[in-house]
Amino acid sequence: MNKKILTIALLSASPLLASDYTSHYLGALDIPFAAFVDTQKFYDQPTKSLTVSSFSITNAFGIYRVDNLWAIPTFGTTDMVEVNVISENIHWPNEAQLVPAGVTPFQSMTIASGFFPPYQEQGGIYLFNMETQMPHLISEAGWLHHSVHWEDINHDGALDIITARAKIAGPAGVLTELLWLENPNNNSITQPWTEHTIQAGPDVNFYVGDLNNDNALDIIATEFFAQRLTWIYETNDANTPWGYRVIDAELGAGFSVSASDLNLDGNIDLLVTNHQSDLSASVFAYEVPSNPLTEIWPKHTLLTNIETRKPGDRQASPGEAEAFHPNTLTTFLTKPWIYVSGDGSMRAHLLVPTSSSSNNWDYEERILHESTESVIGTAAIIDSNLDTFTEIYIPAYDEGKVHAYTFGVKK
């Protein structure tokens, strides 16, 4: 089939609005205190595996791995796979991801760790040798880190780490910063990497890319403590290598940020959440203007009044948001859906576009999963068995489970 015929076939098979997909429950994996779920391609596996980070105030910490993920939607059950331990030696692990090939001479992972006092003291960025099962701290200890991004910042041919961090510093208040860790480029993971501050303010999540196609690095940061959304960008000035602009000073406690063409107009948009205990808890989209330095970034509220149903101090909503297609064949043909980890809402929310118009930012909210007792952590979204239908793996922290859903036909 030539490309023209294939395109016509896809158009005829795909609606302008991908709103007619139904989810099916596949079961749950038993993983204590499951909080962060992701997918990784390990060297010894033909397809991607699931990784799960878990933590609790009872000092129960773990990073787990589920191989043969393809079997869950293929057989319509979670009973065909096993949960194995990667490590139980990292205190308060958040995001765990494989180190890109070539950075170390063996398979290793980066683990961003830490939480609020009294759990921040052992927080940091760890390189974990998967052969020796040994973690090595490569950053200054005592900070809360959520994630890392790999980028060759100094153009020496070696990938460096970008991360954001926060520290409760007593009378000094909260210290926050975006920084990069310089790769020593000697295949050693046992020595600290040199730290370079980029900008004070960012503290939790961030997105790295080139938003305006100027071949310079752009970093969008959600500032949790300063309650704003900011843009950090590379300049051509050696004395001031980074610029800084506040995009939205009324975001609330900033949490999640990612980038995707949400309205299918050919331009990248920002998908952002705050993390609030009241009904200002929301999901937003921002359009990137043609001149991001001087123009306003148009803001659209996609979902608001998210109720935090989980009782207790520090409970808030939502968590992460991610754009996806229930069927990957429609990726370039229809607007994406949006998955929202509710966190304190105790729900997994779906936002489904109600119009194919690029000027319409209205969505229908659907509840994919609801718990009566558990916060909902960061999910993994993937076509597990390459049948073009998407699966979502949802961690329910207090239940100690990862729930699996598919948009394909349940076997």
UniProtKB/TrEMBL annotation:
Domain of life: Bacteria
Position of the signal peptide: 1-18
Keywords carried by this UniProt record: Signal
PANTHER family (UniProt xref): VCBS REPEAT-CONTAINING PROTEIN
Protein name (record): VCBS repeat-containing protein
